[in-house]
Amino acid sequence: MVKKLLSAMMILSLVGLFTTTLNAADVPTKKKKQSAAGLYLTPKEAYDMKQANPGKILFVDVRTPEELYFVGHAANIDKNIPLKYVDYSRTNKKGKGFASAKNKNLIAQLDAAMKAKGLTKEDPVIFICRSGDRSAFAATAAFKAGYKKPYTITTGTEGDKSAEKKRTVNGWKNDGLPWNYKFNKDYFQYEKPFN
Question: Which of 28, 81, 156, 193 has most Cβ atoms within 10 angstroms of its Cβ?
Answer without folding.
Answer: 156
